Amino acid sequence: MNDKLAIIGTEAEEKISGCRSLAELEALRVLYLGRKGELTELLKSVSSLPSEERPSFGAATNRLKARIGELLDARKSALSAVELESRHSQEALDFTLPGRQSFAGHRHPLSQLLEEISDIFHGMGFSVAEGPDVETSWNNFDALNTPQNHPSRDMQDTFYLNNDQSLLLRTHTSPVQIRTMLSQKPPVRIIAPGRCYRRDAIDASHMPVFQQCEGLYVDKKASLADLKGILNYFAHQLLGEKIKIRFRPHFFPFTEPSVEYDFSCLFCGGQGCRVCKQSGWLEISGAGMVDPNVFKNVGYDPETCQGFAWGLGLERVAMLRYGINDIRLFYQGDMRFLKQF
Ligand code: PHE
After folding, report:
1. Which residue, judged by its Cα, is nearest atom 10 of ligand 1?
2. Which among 10, 193, 203, 341 is most buried, taking Cβ atoms within 10 Å?
3. pTM of the model
4. Which residue's CA is minimally distant from atom 4 of ligand 1?
């Protein structure tokens, strides 16, 4: 019987020291010390021994049990250390990896431009007025002295929203002139930025949705010279002192006299180049003295007040400023384009 104990002891020692994982070790513990383990079974057989042999065999078995217990414990702590080590090396943070940067967006180039424009006019005492994109025909056309048969009223040019054509998507920001004058008495100094809509086919210089920034000045006295001074100052602030400005006669139903205004070409300084089609000038937008009929329509007395108004196409100015040759780029959301601003 003692031989058997010796065999079990050597075998257990070998198996425990060769054991590679905690799970394997647990299996060995069950094998030797478990309720149905080899040593337990041996102890059970003590009763079949002659009585004088029983005490020494029992004691030897218990010693072996204790010995195996110690071996298991020692191996367990060694294996735990190894397993912990390997888990750490697998899960460890690698501080040499490049960081994941969060992506910070920024304002759209047209919004940035509008902010600059607003700043410049704030400096001259103008505040920002707003109106809705859905307008009445009266604000968009009638109050602005636009005759019934004017081509801009044509269904081909304007998005109407109902059958009697009393509601539409505004075709310019000029109806904000009307809204402002209806809601306050002179003097008036506002700019009115916003989206406008026209039934244009999309190409490099046309979009059915685009943005304008209107300006309106009304006081007891105002002149074309004041208008030119303001636009001149604005051009210098936005594009530099070298920019010149010129007026060309034009017609708008809501201004009299009316002009179109040009900036001297940013690219050639007025010498003539491809961008300005050799003219030295870039068309910007329309302007003029507020027509007395418009004053009457909003309840202002044309005898005691004078005013001027002007338009500005945001995309057009941004295109000139940054040398962009296709208006669609502003609206395609292409990061390669937007990231440049
Ligand atoms: N509303 C005109 C347009 O869209 C521009 C303009 C504004 C002209 C104010 C005169 C005065 O073309």
Report:
1. 287
2. 193
3. 0.72
4. 172
